[in-house]
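User: My instructor asked us to take a sequence, write out its structure as tokens, and then describe one feature of it. I'm not sure where to start. Here is the sequence I was given:
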Amino acid sequence: MSTLDFATTVRERHSVRQFLPTPMTNAQIREVAEDARRSPSSTNTQPWSVHIVSGETLARLKKRIMEKFEQGELCPDFAYDQSKFDGIYEPRWREFYKEMFAANGVTRDDSEGRKKITRRNAEFYDAPHAAFLFMPDVGDGNVNAASDMGMYSQTFLLSLTARGFGGIPMLFLAMFADVVREELGISPDFKLLHGIAFGYPDKDAPINSALNEQALMRR
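Assistant: Let's start with the prediction itself. The structure tokens for your sequence are:
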């Protein structure tokens, strides 16, 4: 299978928010995982513990995460407060939400429409696969291990793009860490950093072109 050159891969990668139902083959997923495991890490510790789910397991997770979301029951391993991203960062995330609402035909005061958009996270944007990225609880804020995980995630996403697939890193999924650990039988010694929904992008879906990060960056 031919792959895109590096420069094209980097520029083509964007967060896919609508996938086709067509699943990737096990061999295709293994190729992406094989690329990602070559990511650099501090003193070669390779702290990533990645669990890829599809089919019935993914369907069960979708159902359980949706239920927890509807009930407002979050259980993240790491705190996240978007309001702390102020200064030069705040206009960026505010612009993103503005674009997100506009792309979905939702006005600022449409609370039900906004919730519907958030629900798409719990539906994994209809992706047929998801990777959950866990890291060991090594103390000291896990900063170095988290940095390694970021490099793994980027390599995973770039490999998907280079091979004609797509993905979206999802902090939303980390809000339900206990649910994922329980469903997948993972020790509490491993903390969920985020998930990646992935598969074949629906290139005809307007949302995928409207929210292409590269388009937003050029504005």
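For the description part of your assignment, you could build on this observation: Residues 51 and 81 are 26 Å apart (CA to CA). Try explaining in your own words what that tells you about the chain.
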